[in-house]
Protein backbone atom coordinates (compact mmCIF):
# COMPACT_ATOMS: atom_id res chain seq x y z
CA UNK A 1 0.00 0.00 0.00
CA UNK A 2 1.27 3.47 -0.87
CA UNK A 3 2.22 5.49 2.22
CA UNK A 4 3.34 9.05 2.66
CA UNK A 5 6.92 9.59 3.89
CA UNK A 6 9.51 12.35 3.91
CA UNK A 7 10.23 11.72 0.23
CA UNK A 8 6.61 11.74 -1.05
CA UNK A 9 4.23 14.06 0.77
CA UNK A 10 0.53 13.17 0.91
CA UNK A 11 -1.47 14.17 -2.14
CA UNK A 12 -4.98 13.76 -3.50
CA UNK A 13 -6.55 10.32 -3.93
CA UNK A 14 -6.46 10.73 -7.71
CA UNK A 15 -2.73 11.65 -7.58
CA UNK A 16 -2.05 8.62 -5.41
CA UNK A 17 -3.87 6.41 -7.90
CA UNK A 18 -1.60 7.65 -10.69
CA UNK A 19 1.61 7.14 -8.71
CA UNK A 20 0.66 3.62 -7.64
CA UNK A 21 -0.01 2.71 -11.25
CA UNK A 22 3.50 3.79 -12.09
CA UNK A 23 2.50 6.86 -14.06
CA UNK A 24 5.37 9.36 -14.28
CA UNK A 25 4.70 12.66 -12.54
CA UNK A 26 4.87 14.62 -15.79
CA UNK A 27 2.47 12.38 -17.78
CA UNK A 28 -0.30 14.94 -17.51
CA UNK A 29 -2.65 13.58 -20.17
CA UNK A 30 -2.36 9.98 -19.06
CA UNK A 31 -2.72 10.97 -15.42
CA UNK A 32 -5.76 13.09 -16.18
CA UNK A 33 -7.46 10.29 -18.09
CA UNK A 34 -6.78 7.78 -15.34
CA UNK A 35 -7.94 10.25 -12.72
CA UNK A 36 -11.19 10.77 -14.62
CA UNK A 37 -11.69 7.03 -14.93
CA UNK A 38 -11.06 6.59 -11.21
CA UNK A 39 -13.46 9.40 -10.33
CA UNK A 40 -16.10 7.82 -12.57
CA UNK A 41 -15.55 4.46 -10.92
CA UNK A 42 -15.97 6.05 -7.49
CA UNK A 43 -19.16 7.88 -8.50
CA UNK A 44 -20.75 4.78 -9.96
CA UNK A 45 -19.83 2.51 -7.08
CA UNK A 46 -19.91 -1.26 -7.39
CA UNK A 47 -23.09 -2.71 -8.92
CA UNK A 48 -25.20 -4.65 -6.41
CA UNK A 49 -28.24 -6.87 -6.58
CA UNK A 50 -30.61 -4.60 -4.65
CA UNK A 51 -30.61 -0.88 -3.86
CA UNK A 52 -33.16 0.26 -1.27
CA UNK A 53 -34.03 3.94 -1.02
CA UNK A 54 -35.24 4.93 2.43
CA UNK A 55 -33.97 3.44 5.72
CA UNK A 56 -37.43 3.45 7.30
CA UNK A 57 -38.36 0.36 9.29
CA UNK A 58 -39.73 -1.04 6.02
CA UNK A 59 -36.48 -0.30 4.19
CA UNK A 60 -34.46 -1.81 7.00
CA UNK A 61 -36.44 -5.06 6.92
CA UNK A 62 -36.24 -5.13 3.13
CA UNK A 63 -32.45 -4.85 3.36
CA UNK A 64 -32.16 -7.56 6.01
CA UNK A 65 -34.47 -9.92 4.11
CA UNK A 66 -32.68 -9.43 0.78
CA UNK A 67 -29.31 -10.04 2.42
CA UNK A 68 -30.62 -13.18 4.11
CA UNK A 69 -31.54 -14.45 0.65
CA UNK A 70 -27.93 -14.00 -0.45
CA UNK A 71 -28.31 -10.71 -2.33
CA UNK A 72 -25.76 -7.90 -2.18
CA UNK A 73 -27.58 -4.86 -0.78
CA UNK A 74 -27.07 -1.13 -0.39
CA UNK A 75 -29.48 0.81 1.84
CA UNK A 76 -29.65 4.54 1.07
CA UNK A 77 -31.01 7.05 3.55
CA UNK A 78 -31.51 10.75 2.68
CA UNK A 79 -31.07 11.83 6.31
CA UNK A 80 -28.93 10.28 9.04
CA UNK A 81 -30.98 7.72 10.97
CA UNK A 82 -32.47 4.29 10.39
CA UNK A 83 -36.00 3.34 11.41
CA UNK A 84 -38.16 6.27 10.32
CA UNK A 85 -41.04 6.62 12.79
CA UNK A 86 -40.14 3.37 14.57
CA UNK A 87 -37.07 5.12 15.95
CA UNK A 88 -38.47 8.63 15.48
CA UNK A 89 -40.91 8.81 18.37
CA UNK A 90 -43.53 6.13 17.71
CA UNK A 91 -42.64 4.06 20.75
CA UNK A 92 -46.16 2.77 21.40
CA UNK A 93 -46.71 0.31 18.59
CA UNK A 94 -49.99 0.36 16.67
CA UNK A 95 -50.60 -3.37 17.07
CA UNK A 96 -54.10 -3.45 18.56
CA UNK A 97 -56.28 -6.29 17.19
CA UNK A 98 -53.44 -7.64 15.05
CA UNK A 99 -50.86 -9.09 17.46
CA UNK A 100 -51.43 -12.54 16.02
CA UNK A 101 -50.65 -11.59 12.41
CA UNK A 102 -47.28 -9.94 13.08
CA UNK A 103 -44.51 -12.40 12.26
CA UNK A 104 -41.17 -12.64 10.51
CA UNK A 105 -38.62 -9.87 10.94
CA UNK A 106 -41.24 -7.55 12.44
CA UNK A 107 -41.88 -10.00 15.26
CA UNK A 108 -38.13 -10.51 15.65
CA UNK A 109 -37.74 -6.77 16.20
CA UNK A 110 -40.40 -6.73 18.93
CA UNK A 111 -38.85 -9.78 20.57
CA UNK A 112 -35.43 -8.13 20.56
CA UNK A 113 -37.04 -5.08 22.13
CA UNK A 114 -38.54 -7.40 24.75
CA UNK A 115 -35.13 -8.94 25.47
CA UNK A 116 -33.75 -5.45 26.05
CA UNK A 117 -36.38 -4.88 28.76
CA UNK A 118 -36.18 -8.39 30.22
CA UNK A 119 -39.47 -9.63 28.83
CA UNK A 120 -40.64 -11.92 26.04
CA UNK A 121 -41.88 -9.19 23.74
CA UNK A 122 -42.15 -5.40 23.92
CA UNK A 123 -44.70 -3.39 22.00
CA UNK A 124 -43.49 -0.23 23.74
CA UNK A 125 -39.88 0.90 23.58
CA UNK A 126 -37.66 3.95 23.66
CA UNK A 127 -36.62 5.50 20.33
CA UNK A 128 -32.89 4.97 20.86
CA UNK A 129 -33.51 1.32 21.71
CA UNK A 130 -35.44 0.84 18.45
CA UNK A 131 -32.63 2.35 16.37
CA UNK A 132 -29.99 0.28 18.17
CA UNK A 133 -31.89 -2.93 17.40
CA UNK A 134 -32.36 -2.03 13.74
CA UNK A 135 -28.68 -1.18 13.35
CA UNK A 136 -27.77 -4.51 14.92
CA UNK A 137 -30.02 -6.38 12.50
CA UNK A 138 -28.42 -4.59 9.55
CA UNK A 139 -24.89 -5.18 10.83
CA UNK A 140 -25.52 -8.89 11.34
CA UNK A 141 -26.35 -9.20 7.63
CA UNK A 142 -23.44 -6.91 6.66
CA UNK A 143 -25.79 -4.51 4.87
CA UNK A 144 -24.04 -1.41 3.54
CA UNK A 145 -25.92 1.66 4.83
CA UNK A 146 -25.21 5.05 3.24
CA UNK A 147 -26.48 8.19 4.98
CA UNK A 148 -27.02 11.64 3.45
CA UNK A 149 -27.98 10.08 0.13
CA UNK A 150 -30.92 12.08 -1.16
CA UNK A 151 -32.26 11.18 -4.59
CA UNK A 152 -31.30 13.51 -7.42
CA UNK A 153 -32.13 11.53 -10.58
CA UNK A 154 -32.32 8.08 -12.11
CA UNK A 155 -31.29 6.45 -15.36
CA UNK A 156 -34.04 4.31 -16.84
CA UNK A 157 -34.51 2.25 -20.00
CA UNK A 158 -36.79 -0.55 -21.16
CA UNK A 159 -39.10 -0.01 -18.16
CA UNK A 160 -36.22 -0.64 -15.75
CA UNK A 161 -34.27 1.60 -13.41
CA UNK A 162 -30.60 1.25 -14.33
CA UNK A 163 -29.01 3.55 -11.77
CA UNK A 164 -29.82 6.07 -9.06
CA UNK A 165 -27.81 9.25 -8.55
CA UNK A 166 -27.84 11.14 -5.26
CA UNK A 167 -27.39 14.85 -4.69
CA UNK A 168 -23.69 14.41 -3.81
CA UNK A 169 -23.07 12.92 -7.26
CA UNK A 170 -22.77 9.29 -6.19
CA UNK A 171 -24.41 6.85 -8.59
CA UNK A 172 -25.71 3.43 -7.55
CA UNK A 173 -26.46 0.64 -9.99
CA UNK A 174 -28.51 -2.45 -9.19
CA UNK A 175 -30.64 -5.16 -10.71
CA UNK A 176 -33.65 -4.36 -8.51
CA UNK A 177 -34.68 -1.22 -6.60
CA UNK A 178 -37.01 -0.74 -3.64
CA UNK A 179 -38.68 2.55 -2.67
CA UNK A 180 -39.20 2.34 1.08
CA UNK A 181 -39.69 6.06 1.71
CA UNK A 182 -42.82 7.55 3.23
CA UNK A 183 -42.99 9.95 0.30
CA UNK A 184 -42.56 7.61 -2.70
CA UNK A 185 -39.86 9.76 -4.29
CA UNK A 186 -38.11 6.98 -6.21
CA UNK A 187 -41.47 5.72 -7.40
CA UNK A 188 -42.29 9.13 -8.82
CA UNK A 189 -38.86 9.53 -10.42
CA UNK A 190 -39.44 6.23 -12.23
CA UNK A 191 -42.66 7.53 -13.78
CA UNK A 192 -44.91 5.24 -11.74
CA UNK A 193 -48.56 6.29 -11.49
CA UNK A 194 -49.71 7.55 -8.11
CA UNK A 195 -52.43 9.54 -6.34
CA UNK A 196 -52.40 12.05 -3.50
CA UNK A 197 -55.35 12.62 -1.18
CA UNK A 198 -58.72 11.06 -0.54
CA UNK A 199 -61.02 9.84 -3.26
CA UNK A 200 -64.80 10.17 -3.38
CA UNK A 201 -67.22 7.42 -2.44
CA UNK A 202 -68.02 6.79 -6.09
CA UNK A 203 -64.40 6.31 -7.17
CA UNK A 204 -64.11 2.76 -5.81
CA UNK A 205 -67.55 2.30 -4.25
CA UNK A 206 -66.24 2.89 -0.71
CA UNK A 207 -68.80 3.94 1.89
CA UNK A 208 -66.14 5.55 4.12
CA UNK A 209 -64.42 7.54 1.40
CA UNK A 210 -64.45 11.26 0.73
CA UNK A 211 -65.23 14.24 2.88
CA UNK A 212 -66.83 13.18 6.13
CA UNK A 213 -69.94 14.49 7.83
CA UNK A 214 -69.36 16.52 10.98
CA UNK A 215 -69.86 13.86 13.64
CA UNK A 216 -69.39 13.47 17.38
CA UNK A 217 -66.20 11.74 18.47
CA UNK A 218 -63.43 12.11 21.01
CA UNK A 219 -61.54 14.00 18.30
CA UNK A 220 -64.32 16.53 17.75
CA UNK A 221 -64.20 20.11 19.05
CA UNK A 222 -67.01 19.83 21.54
CA UNK A 223 -67.04 23.44 22.66
CA UNK A 224 -68.86 26.32 20.92
CA UNK A 225 -65.99 28.52 19.78
CA UNK A 226 -65.83 31.14 17.06
CA UNK A 227 -63.49 30.69 14.06
CA UNK A 228 -63.22 34.46 13.48
CA UNK A 229 -60.77 37.09 14.62
CA UNK A 230 -60.69 40.65 13.35
CA UNK A 231 -63.04 39.75 10.51
CA UNK A 232 -60.85 36.86 9.26
CA UNK A 233 -60.88 33.13 9.82
CA UNK A 234 -58.18 31.91 12.17
CA UNK A 235 -55.21 30.16 10.47
CA UNK A 236 -55.75 26.65 9.04
CA UNK A 237 -59.55 26.85 9.19
CA UNK A 238 -61.50 25.95 6.05
CA UNK A 239 -64.48 28.13 5.21
CA UNK A 240 -67.82 26.33 4.86
CA UNK A 241 -68.20 27.45 1.26
CA UNK A 242 -64.86 25.81 0.43
CA UNK A 243 -65.85 22.40 1.78
CA UNK A 244 -66.35 19.57 -0.69
CA UNK A 245 -69.74 17.87 -0.55
CA UNK A 246 -70.12 15.00 1.88
CA UNK A 247 -68.59 11.89 0.32
CA UNK A 248 -66.81 13.79 -2.44
CA UNK A 249 -63.11 13.46 -3.10
CA UNK A 250 -61.12 16.61 -2.42
CA UNK A 251 -57.50 15.43 -2.52
CA UNK A 252 -56.98 16.23 1.16
CA UNK A 253 -55.37 13.88 3.66
CA UNK A 254 -54.87 13.45 7.38
CA UNK A 255 -52.65 15.69 9.49
CA UNK A 256 -48.98 15.21 10.29
CA UNK A 257 -47.22 15.81 13.60
CA UNK A 258 -44.08 15.16 15.57
CA UNK A 259 -44.54 12.40 18.14
CA UNK A 260 -42.58 13.64 21.12
CA UNK A 261 -40.69 11.49 23.58
CA UNK A 262 -41.04 13.28 26.91
CA UNK A 263 -39.98 12.33 30.42
CA UNK A 264 -40.87 13.37 33.96
CA UNK A 265 -37.67 11.88 35.41
CA UNK A 266 -35.82 14.96 36.66
CA UNK A 267 -32.33 13.55 36.09
CA UNK A 268 -33.09 12.92 32.41
CA UNK A 269 -35.37 15.89 31.73
CA UNK A 270 -34.61 18.84 29.45
CA UNK A 271 -37.01 21.70 30.29
CA UNK A 272 -39.08 23.10 27.41
CA UNK A 273 -37.76 26.60 26.81
CA UNK A 274 -39.57 29.43 25.08
CA UNK A 275 -39.29 28.88 21.31
CA UNK A 276 -37.59 31.45 19.13
CA UNK A 277 -40.28 33.65 17.55
CA UNK A 278 -42.92 32.23 19.89
CA UNK A 279 -46.39 33.71 19.39
CA UNK A 280 -49.14 32.51 21.75
CA UNK A 281 -51.72 33.78 19.26
CA UNK A 282 -50.98 30.71 17.13
CA UNK A 283 -52.85 28.68 19.77
CA UNK A 284 -55.95 30.88 19.83
CA UNK A 285 -58.23 27.92 19.03
CA UNK A 286 -56.95 26.08 22.07
CA UNK A 287 -57.23 29.18 24.24
CA UNK A 288 -60.88 29.55 23.21
CA UNK A 289 -61.58 25.89 24.02
CA UNK A 290 -60.04 26.38 27.47
CA UNK A 291 -62.04 29.58 27.97
CA UNK A 292 -65.23 27.52 27.62
CA UNK A 293 -64.15 24.13 28.93
CA UNK A 294 -61.67 25.11 31.65
CA UNK A 295 -59.96 22.20 33.39
CA UNK A 296 -61.92 19.71 31.28
CA UNK A 297 -59.65 20.56 28.36
CA UNK A 298 -56.83 18.37 29.63
CA UNK A 299 -56.05 15.79 26.91
CA UNK A 300 -54.04 18.18 24.73
CA UNK A 301 -50.88 16.11 25.12
CA UNK A 302 -51.60 12.39 25.12
CA UNK A 303 -49.33 11.46 28.03
CA UNK A 304 -49.16 7.66 28.14
CA UNK A 305 -46.53 5.70 30.07
CA UNK A 306 -43.47 4.25 28.36
CA UNK A 307 -40.40 2.49 29.76
CA UNK A 308 -38.03 4.41 32.04
CA UNK A 309 -40.41 7.23 32.89
CA UNK A 310 -40.98 8.35 29.31
CA UNK A 311 -44.06 8.97 27.17
CA UNK A 312 -44.76 8.73 23.45
CA UNK A 313 -46.86 11.87 23.02
CA UNK A 314 -49.20 11.69 20.02
CA UNK A 315 -52.46 13.52 19.41
CA UNK A 316 -55.49 12.64 21.48
CA UNK A 317 -57.46 15.86 21.17
CA UNK A 318 -58.82 17.85 18.20
CA UNK A 319 -56.33 20.63 18.96
CA UNK A 320 -53.05 18.86 19.61
CA UNK A 321 -49.62 18.18 18.14
CA UNK A 322 -51.41 17.61 14.82
CA UNK A 323 -51.51 20.64 12.53
CA UNK A 324 -54.37 20.01 10.07
CA UNK A 325 -53.96 21.53 6.63
CA UNK A 326 -50.30 22.50 6.99
CA UNK A 327 -49.12 19.35 5.20
CA UNK A 328 -51.07 19.55 1.95
CA UNK A 329 -48.09 20.69 -0.14
CA UNK A 330 -45.79 18.03 1.27
CA UNK A 331 -46.14 14.94 -0.99
CA UNK A 332 -45.25 16.73 -4.24
CA UNK A 333 -43.35 19.59 -2.62
CA UNK A 334 -39.80 20.57 -3.48
CA UNK A 335 -37.05 19.75 -0.95
CA UNK A 336 -37.14 23.37 0.14
CA UNK A 337 -40.92 23.36 0.62
CA UNK A 338 -40.74 20.11 2.56
CA UNK A 339 -38.14 21.61 4.91
CA UNK A 340 -40.50 24.52 5.53
CA UNK A 341 -43.32 22.11 6.39
CA UNK A 342 -41.08 20.10 8.75
CA UNK A 343 -40.08 23.30 10.53
CA UNK A 344 -43.66 24.53 10.70
CA UNK A 345 -44.76 21.31 12.40
CA UNK A 346 -41.79 21.28 14.77
CA UNK A 347 -42.38 24.93 15.69
CA UNK A 348 -46.05 24.12 16.30
CA UNK A 349 -45.17 21.21 18.59
CA UNK A 350 -42.57 23.20 20.53
CA UNK A 351 -44.87 26.17 20.96
CA UNK A 352 -47.86 24.03 21.94
CA UNK A 353 -45.97 22.32 24.77
CA UNK A 354 -44.64 25.67 25.97
CA UNK A 355 -48.15 27.16 25.77
CA UNK A 356 -49.81 24.49 27.93
CA UNK A 357 -46.98 24.69 30.45
CA UNK A 358 -46.84 28.48 30.75
CA UNK A 359 -49.74 30.45 29.29
CA UNK A 360 -51.86 32.18 31.96
CA UNK A 361 -55.04 31.26 30.05
CA UNK A 362 -54.36 27.59 30.82
CA UNK A 363 -55.79 26.51 34.21
CA UNK A 364 -53.10 26.13 36.86
CA UNK A 365 -53.91 22.46 37.38
CA UNK A 366 -53.38 21.75 33.66
CA UNK A 367 -50.13 23.76 33.62
CA UNK A 368 -48.86 21.82 36.63
CA UNK A 369 -49.83 18.53 35.02
CA UNK A 370 -47.73 19.22 31.93
CA UNK A 371 -44.90 21.26 33.45
CA UNK A 372 -43.31 18.15 34.96
CA UNK A 373 -42.58 16.85 31.45
CA UNK A 374 -39.61 17.71 29.27
CA UNK A 375 -37.45 16.35 26.48
CA UNK A 376 -35.12 13.44 27.18
CA UNK A 377 -31.36 13.89 27.49
CA UNK A 378 -30.79 10.38 26.12
CA UNK A 379 -33.14 10.61 23.10
CA UNK A 380 -32.52 12.36 19.78
CA UNK A 381 -29.18 13.58 21.05
CA UNK A 382 -28.17 15.09 17.70
CA UNK A 383 -31.35 17.19 17.46
CA UNK A 384 -31.57 18.55 20.99
CA UNK A 385 -34.17 16.02 22.14
CA UNK A 386 -36.63 16.76 19.33
CA UNK A 387 -37.58 13.83 17.03
CA UNK A 388 -35.67 13.40 13.79
CA UNK A 389 -38.72 12.16 11.86
CA UNK A 390 -41.95 13.93 10.92
CA UNK A 391 -44.96 11.62 11.24
CA UNK A 392 -45.95 11.41 7.58
CA UNK A 393 -49.15 9.44 7.96
CA UNK A 394 -49.97 9.52 4.26
CA UNK A 395 -48.29 10.99 1.18
CA UNK A 396 -48.26 9.53 -2.32
CA UNK A 397 -50.09 6.26 -2.95
CA UNK A 398 -49.11 4.13 -5.93
CA UNK A 399 -51.61 3.08 -8.59
CA UNK A 400 -50.11 -0.31 -9.33
CA UNK A 401 -50.92 -3.81 -10.52
CA UNK A 402 -53.64 -4.19 -7.88
CA UNK A 403 -55.24 -1.33 -5.98
CA UNK A 404 -56.54 -2.13 -2.51
CA UNK A 405 -59.84 -0.59 -1.46
CA UNK A 406 -62.28 -0.80 1.44
CA UNK A 407 -63.71 -3.97 -0.11
CA UNK A 408 -60.37 -5.78 0.32
CA UNK A 409 -60.50 -5.00 4.03
CA UNK A 410 -64.11 -5.95 4.65
CA UNK A 411 -65.60 -8.31 2.07
CA UNK A 412 -62.74 -9.71 -0.04
CA UNK A 413 -60.04 -10.21 2.56
CA UNK A 414 -58.30 -13.32 1.19
CA UNK A 415 -55.72 -13.14 -1.64
CA UNK A 416 -53.90 -15.93 -3.47
CA UNK A 417 -50.72 -13.82 -3.62
CA UNK A 418 -50.71 -12.84 0.07
CA UNK A 419 -47.27 -11.88 1.39
CA UNK A 420 -48.40 -10.89 4.88
CA UNK A 421 -51.38 -9.66 6.83
CA UNK A 422 -52.78 -6.45 8.28
CA UNK A 423 -55.61 -5.80 10.69
CA UNK A 424 -55.40 -2.38 12.30
CA UNK A 425 -58.43 -0.11 12.29
CA UNK A 426 -59.07 2.07 9.26
CA UNK A 427 -57.49 4.98 11.09
CA UNK A 428 -57.64 8.53 9.74
CA UNK A 429 -56.81 11.41 12.01
CA UNK A 430 -57.94 15.04 11.70
CA UNK A 431 -58.00 16.28 8.11
CA UNK A 432 -59.13 19.88 8.64
CA UNK A 433 -60.68 22.37 11.01
CA UNK A 434 -63.78 23.91 9.45
CA UNK A 435 -66.10 26.82 10.08
CA UNK A 436 -69.79 25.91 9.89
CA UNK A 437 -72.94 27.89 10.47
CA UNK A 438 -74.61 26.52 13.59
CA UNK A 439 -78.20 27.24 14.57
CA UNK A 440 -79.50 27.96 18.07
CA UNK A 441 -82.97 29.45 17.63
CA UNK A 442 -83.39 32.36 17.58
CA UNK A 443 -79.62 32.82 17.04
CA UNK A 444 -77.15 31.51 14.44
CA UNK A 445 -73.36 31.68 14.60
CA UNK A 446 -70.26 30.21 12.98
CA UNK A 447 -68.44 27.59 15.03
CA UNK A 448 -65.30 25.47 14.60
CA UNK A 449 -65.47 21.73 13.99
CA UNK A 450 -63.00 18.99 13.14
CA UNK A 451 -63.57 17.01 9.93
CA UNK A 452 -62.12 13.75 8.70
CA UNK A 453 -61.61 11.46 11.68
CA UNK A 454 -62.33 7.74 11.09
CA UNK A 455 -61.57 4.72 13.29
CA UNK A 456 -63.33 1.71 11.77
CA UNK A 457 -62.37 -1.77 13.07
CA UNK A 458 -61.59 -4.46 10.48
CA UNK A 459 -60.75 -8.15 10.69
CA UNK A 460 -57.27 -9.31 9.57
CA UNK A 461 -56.85 -9.05 5.81
CA UNK A 462 -54.25 -10.23 3.28
CA UNK A 463 -51.64 -7.92 1.77
CA UNK A 464 -51.34 -9.00 -1.87
CA UNK A 465 -47.94 -9.00 -3.56
CA UNK A 466 -49.49 -7.17 -6.52
CA UNK A 467 -50.11 -4.11 -4.31
CA UNK A 468 -46.32 -3.69 -4.03
CA UNK A 469 -45.84 -3.69 -7.81
CA UNK A 470 -46.00 -0.77 -10.25
CA UNK A 471 -47.87 -1.41 -13.45
CA UNK A 472 -45.79 -3.75 -15.60
CA UNK A 473 -45.50 -1.27 -18.44
CA UNK A 474 -44.20 1.47 -16.11
CA UNK A 475 -41.38 -0.20 -14.19
CA UNK A 476 -40.34 -3.85 -13.96
CA UNK A 477 -37.58 -3.79 -11.34
CA UNK A 478 -39.10 -1.64 -8.60
CA UNK A 479 -40.97 -2.68 -5.45
CA UNK A 480 -42.91 -0.23 -3.25
CA UNK A 481 -43.65 -1.55 0.28
CA UNK A 482 -44.68 1.74 1.96
CA UNK A 483 -46.58 3.87 -0.59
CA UNK A 484 -48.40 0.76 -1.76
CA UNK A 485 -51.17 0.66 -4.34
CA UNK A 486 -54.24 1.53 -2.29
CA UNK A 487 -57.07 3.96 -1.84
CA UNK A 488 -56.94 6.36 1.09
CA UNK A 489 -59.35 4.16 3.04
CA UNK A 490 -57.36 0.95 2.51
CA UNK A 491 -54.06 2.69 3.17
CA UNK A 492 -55.42 3.97 6.48
CA UNK A 493 -55.45 0.41 7.81
CA UNK A 494 -52.14 -0.58 6.23
CA UNK A 495 -50.11 2.49 7.22
CA UNK A 496 -48.78 1.19 10.56
CA UNK A 497 -45.13 0.36 11.19
CA UNK A 498 -45.68 -3.41 11.70
CA UNK A 499 -47.28 -3.61 8.24
CA UNK A 500 -44.52 -1.50 6.72
CA UNK A 501 -42.01 -4.00 8.14
CA UNK A 502 -44.04 -6.98 6.92
CA UNK A 503 -44.29 -5.54 3.40
CA UNK A 504 -40.62 -4.57 3.54
CA UNK A 505 -39.57 -8.13 4.30
CA UNK A 506 -41.66 -9.39 1.39
CA UNK A 507 -40.20 -6.75 -0.94
CA UNK A 508 -36.63 -7.58 0.07
CA UNK A 509 -37.19 -11.31 -0.39
CA UNK A 510 -38.83 -10.81 -3.79
CA UNK A 511 -36.11 -8.38 -4.88
CA UNK A 512 -33.40 -10.92 -4.09
CA UNK A 513 -35.28 -13.59 -6.06
CA UNK A 514 -35.75 -11.29 -9.06
CA UNK A 515 -32.11 -10.18 -8.98
CA UNK A 516 -30.97 -13.80 -9.02
CA UNK A 517 -33.21 -14.81 -11.92
CA UNK A 518 -32.98 -11.58 -13.89
CA UNK A 519 -36.76 -11.63 -14.33
CA UNK A 520 -39.09 -8.68 -13.70
CA UNK A 521 -40.33 -8.44 -10.12
CA UNK A 522 -43.79 -9.12 -11.55
CA UNK A 523 -42.65 -12.62 -12.59
CA UNK A 524 -41.37 -13.76 -9.21
CA UNK A 525 -43.05 -17.16 -8.58
CA UNK A 526 -45.66 -16.49 -5.91
CA UNK A 527 -45.56 -19.99 -4.43
CA UNK A 528 -41.79 -19.80 -4.06
CA UNK A 529 -41.96 -16.32 -2.56
CA UNK A 530 -44.61 -17.44 -0.08
CA UNK A 531 -42.53 -20.51 0.79
CA UNK A 532 -39.48 -18.35 1.52
CA UNK A 533 -41.53 -15.91 3.59
CA UNK A 534 -43.22 -18.66 5.59
CA UNK A 535 -39.82 -20.23 6.29
CA UNK A 536 -38.71 -16.86 7.67
CA UNK A 537 -41.70 -16.69 10.02
CA UNK A 538 -43.99 -14.41 8.01
CA UNK A 539 -47.68 -15.05 8.75
CA UNK A 540 -49.62 -15.50 5.52
CA UNK A 541 -52.90 -16.70 7.00
CA UNK A 542 -54.65 -15.73 10.23
CA UNK A 543 -53.94 -18.27 13.02
Can you describe what's shown?
- This protein is of the alpha+beta class and 543 residues long.
- 29% of the residues lie in helices and 18% in strands.
- It has 14 helices and 23 strands.
- It has helices at 13-20, 28-44, 57-68, 104-116, 127-140, 185-189, 201-204, 284-293, 335-358, 364-371, 406-410, 488-494, 497-517, 526-535; strands at 48-53, 73-77, 144-147, 151-157, 160-166, 171-179, 194-196, 228-229, 232-233, 237-238, 260-263, 269-270, 305-306, 310-313, 374-376, 396-398, 418-422, 426-428, 432-440, 443-451, 454-456, 461-464, 478-479.
- α1 (13-20) crosses α2 (28-44), α4 crosses α13 (497-517) and α9 (335-358) crosses α10.
- It is globular.
- The N and C termini lie far apart (58 Å).
- Mean pLDDT is 92; it is low at 1-27 and 30-43.
Number of strands: 23
Structural class: alpha+beta
End-to-end C-alpha gap = 58 Å
Largest sheet: 7 strands, mixed
Could you state the oligomeric state of the chains shown? single chain
Q: Which bin fits the share of residues in helices?
A: 25-40%
What count of structural domains?
Answer: 3
The CATH homologous superfamily of the largest domain: FAD/NAD(P)-binding domain
Strand content: 15-25%
> Ranges with pLDDT <50 over ≥5 residues?
1-27, 30-43
